Amino acid sequence: MSNTEQKRILLIGGGSGIGHAIAQAALERGDQPILGARDPERTASTLPEALRDVPVVHADLADEHTIAALTESGPFDAVVSLAADTANGPVSSLERAAIHTAFDAKVAGPLLLAKHLTDSMNPGGTFVFFSGVAAFKPAPSLSVMAIVNGAVAFMAEALAVELAPVRAVAISPGIIDSGLWDFMGDDGKRDFFATTAAANPARRVGTPADIVEAVLLAIDNTFITGTTLHVDGGGRLA
Ligand SMILES: NC(=O)c1ccc[n+]([C@@H]2O[C@H](COP(=O)([O-])OP(=O)(O)OC[C@H]3O[C@@H](n4cnc5c(N)ncnc54)[C@H](OP(=O)(O)O)[C@@H]3O)[C@@H](O)[C@H]2O)c1
User: Fold this and answer.
1) CATH assignment of 8-178+208-231, among 1.10.760.10, 1.20.210.10, 3.40.50.720, 3.40.1550.10
2) Is 59 a pocket residue for ligand 1 (Cβ < 6 Å)?
3) What's the whole-model pTM score?
């Protein structure tokens, strides 16, 4: 991929899965990724070889002090928030604390990123927030996931208007083989992916590379703002 100028890209919750892939693509095209993580030492110690020189700073989206301190790592061309925490289960079993943790990671924390970092954005800069297909295809026991991801999509619209000309874009991945699903074990993951692929109009699950392309588009194309890029193989329609 080509890039006309080096960009400083802060990736919050970028210490795993899709975040690694974005950081690697950014490095390969000459950008400067910076990772923000709740436990920077642990994240730094688990980085793949290709990312070993990428700085890791403290960023906990449930802790406003760490968010405010991110100004010291600016200025930025993009602030990408990948953070996610779940509160899955039937509504009748939901715990208030888990609901708040999920909202901190995807909604309140990203809003505080906008509060503290808008003045640290270079011209043409953008916030990129991660939504997800669960918002657009709700399922039982995933209501909190649907609601927080839906809020992300509306947050991109609201912030694009309020923070202009700083941009705000949401990315909505479908099921991505990012490592997130490894807990299912080889057989469980294979079955889940086969079922998902059969139902998706794209007839496959996604890869981190699919998401990387969308994130770089959101960063580079300064006419994209206030919208959600669905990178879900059409899964929300299946
Ligand atoms: N993979 C998929 O199939 C899929 C589908 C739809 C949407 N998405 C979305 O895509 C994004 C990236 O997904 P992924 O697969 O890379 O997920 P992941 O590997 O689970 O990454 C999520 C990251 O969020 C971080 N995090 C959680 N709470 C945080 C907080 N309060 N402050 C800062 N960081 C926090 C975690 O860091 P720790 O290491 O500190 O726990 C972790 O690095 C997520 O927003 C996810 O919801 C993914």
Assistant:
1) 3.40.50.720
2) yes
3) 0.97
